[in-house]
């Protein structure tokens, strides 16, 4: 091997080592999260939530957070754990009906809440990841949602302007991922996770199975690694069912 090739090989290895995205656990992957930051937390109800990351955030005890999540989990699981610790000062959500502590904090004035139509919330996150600063939507026109927002008429129908959402950290749960951060979701656990993975300044992904590079079929990758800064293999997933419906 020529001297030039040796030097280039060493430079390449140094670059790759600095780009290592794999973290040993949630505790190390959340390093840098500080008080008063804005966080995105993927999942819908209790489906596809980043359980390990939430537990680590609760343990770390950061406060004053603005959390963007489809909802606040339930009282004793998911984002609800952070509410019980009074870590959240503001929730940006679309549905919050399953959490009694959320309701209590809202009615008592302890918690600021921005309720957003569900499709609008998804699109605001997607726009944030796509570099689109704002968009017009008919959802919410003529309601409290439209207060203080620009409106415009298109083809005889009224629309209101919604701004994109971004976060200091986005916490995402996926089924499989590789060491470069390419990830695959499974079933309905995909929900809000792809949009939020794209909209975080630092995106932390926890996966059920971490595989070597090249093992994932490129045709089935939902989010490419360019959007992911940190990835780790989670453990002890409970995967609780929010509401179980059975026949008698």
Describe what this molecule looks like in 3D:
Helix content is 26%, strand content 25%. By secondary structure, it is of the alpha/beta class. It has one domain (22-133, 165-233): Glutaconate Coenzyme A-transferase. The strands form two sheets. Strands 1, 2, 3, 4, 8, 9, 10 and 11 form an eight-stranded mixed β-sheet that branches. A three-stranded antiparallel β-sheet has the order 5-7-6. The longest helix is centred in the first third of the chain and has 16 residues, at 3-18. The radius of gyration is 20 Å and the shape is globular. GO terms for molecular function: CoA-transferase activity.
The fold-level CATH name is Glutaconate Coenzyme A-transferase
Count of strand segments: 11
Helix content: 25-40%
Residues in β-strands, percent: 25-35%
CATH class: Alpha Beta
The poorly predicted ranges are none
Summarize the helix and strand pattern as letters.
HHEHEHEHEHEEEEEHEE
Quote the distance from N terminus to C terminus.
73 Å
- Number of separate domains: 1
Tell me, what's the shape? globular
Q: What number is the mean pLDDT?
A: 92
């Amino acid at each position: 091997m020529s001297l030039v090739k040796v030097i280039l090989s060493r430079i390449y290895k140094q670059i790759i080592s600095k780009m290592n995205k794999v973290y040993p656990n949630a505790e190390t992957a959340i390093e840098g999260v500080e008080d008063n930051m804005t966080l995105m937390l993927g999942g819908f109800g209790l489906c596809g939530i980043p359980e390990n990351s939430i537990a680590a955030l609760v343990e770390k005890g950061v406060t004053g957070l603005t959390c963007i999540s489809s909802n606040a989990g339930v009282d004793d699981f998911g984002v609800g754990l952070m509410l019980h610790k009074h870590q959240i000062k503001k929730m940006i959500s679309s549905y919050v009906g399953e959490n009694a502590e959320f309701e209590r904090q809202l009615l008592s004035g302890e918690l600021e809440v921005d309720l957003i139509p569900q499709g609008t919330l998804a699109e605001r996150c997607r726009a944030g990841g796509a570099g689109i600063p704002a968009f017009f939507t008919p959802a919410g026109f003529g309601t409290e949602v439209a207060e203080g927002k620009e409106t415009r008429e298109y083809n005889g129908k009224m629309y209101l302007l919604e701004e994109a959402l971004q976060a200091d950290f986005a916490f995402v749960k996926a089924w499989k991922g590789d060491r470069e951060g390419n990830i695959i979701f499974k079933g309905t656990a995909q929900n809000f996770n792809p949009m939020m993975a794209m909209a975080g300044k630092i995106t932390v992904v926890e996966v059920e199975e971490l595989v070597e590079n090249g093992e994932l079929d490129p045709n089935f990758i939902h989010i490419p690694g360019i959007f992911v800064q940190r990835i780790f293999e989670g453990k002890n997933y409970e995967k609780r069912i929010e509401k179980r419906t059975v026949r008698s």
